[in-house]
């Protein structure tokens, strides 16, 4: 059993809109009610801490690689801080304190091999209710894609493990694009794959400040969620987003205006009829 646990203030149902800082890329937040996302025609999703509850898998896999090489194991807090990096840079940072140390290449490759192989519906399960949102958006005709700062094979494995391939047009990782988040390259590739995307009607949903930065750099709406590894209850983290949702239920209501017109099911226990 994993010992991964992060101290976090109790969540309460809340939606918070944030104005884009003057130094950021242009934001679409002013153009519509940020409490409602029902007008969006394209939605891209982050994976870890947004779609899937994979913190224990990532933490345990990281320490397994460090332990095999006689390196110091990390704490849950160190793991959470490290998730702002791509995998090779994160592993280098954990091992040496320098994210640019070349040791990260080999450590990252070893981590990816272990991480991807362990993905299944238990270790990489979607958060309760998230799959229903993807299914509801798919039924509405909203185009969806996935972008992770982990490797692409991992992102695609998580989608497959949760039987969500039919809902998304593509799933990319940091190794599939020239520059990882917070650069906009990955989101641009997602939008190019989907085709004919008006970024004013598109959003990227993630839990890390770099997700918000990438969304704004790509010109789409930056949507933050607070159930992942990053504490977006803090204004210094939340300011990277146009709006932050503190629960899956709040996000669902923003998309579906608290109706079941799109056939969304609150309980994610029946996967038939997709």
Question: What would your notes on this structure say?
Answer:
It is a single chain. This protein is α/β, with parallel strands linked by helices and 274 residues long. It has two domains: 15-53 and 124-256, Rossmann fold, CATH 3.40.50; 55-118. Helices cover 37% and strands 10% of the residues. It has ten helices and seven strands. The chain has helices spanning 55-68, 76-82, 87-96, 103-118, 130-140, 152-161, 185-194, 209-218, 235-238, 248-256, and strands at 15-17, 42-45, 143-147, 171-172, 202-206, 221-225, 243-245. The chain has a seven-stranded mixed beta sheet with strand order 1-7-6-5-2-3-4, sandwiched between helices. Helix 3 (87-96) packs across helix 4 (103-118). The longest helix is centred in the middle third of the chain and has 16 residues, at 103-118.
């Amino acid at each position: 059993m994993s010992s991964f646990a992060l101290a976090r203030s109790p969540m309460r149902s809340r939606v918070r809109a944030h104005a884009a800082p003057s130094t950021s890329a242009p934001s679409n937040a002013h153009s519509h009610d940020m409490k409602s996302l029902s007008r969006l025609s394209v939605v891209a999703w982050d994976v870890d801490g947004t779609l899937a509850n994979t913190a224990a898998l990532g933490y345990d896999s990281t320490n397994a690689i460090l332990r095999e090489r006689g390196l110091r194991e990390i704490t849950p807090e160190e793991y959470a801080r490290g998730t702002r990096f791509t995998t090779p840079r994160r592993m280098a940072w954990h091992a040496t304190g320098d994210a640019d140390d070349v040791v990260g290449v080999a450590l990252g490759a070893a981590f990816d091999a272990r991480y991807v192989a362990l993905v299944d519906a238990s270790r990489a399960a979607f958060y309760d209710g998230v799959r229903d949102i993807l299914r509801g958006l798919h039924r509405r005709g909203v185009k969806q894609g996935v972008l992770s700062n982990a490797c692409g094979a991992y992102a695609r494995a998580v989608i497959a493990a949760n039987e969500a391939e039919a809902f998304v047009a593509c799933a990319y990782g940091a190794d599939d694009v020239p520059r990882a988040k917070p650069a906009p390259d990955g989101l641009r590739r997602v939008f190019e794959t989907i085709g004919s995307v008006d970024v004013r009607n598109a959003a990227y949903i993630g839990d890390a400040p770099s997700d918000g930065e990438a969304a704004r750099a790509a010109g789409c709406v930056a949507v933050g969620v607070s159930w992942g590894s990053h504490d977006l209850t803090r204004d210094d983290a939340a300011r990277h987003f146009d709006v932050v949702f503190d629960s899956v239920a709040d996000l669902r209501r923003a998309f579906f205006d608290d109706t079941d017109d799109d056939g969304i099911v609150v309980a994610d226990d029946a996967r038939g009829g997709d």
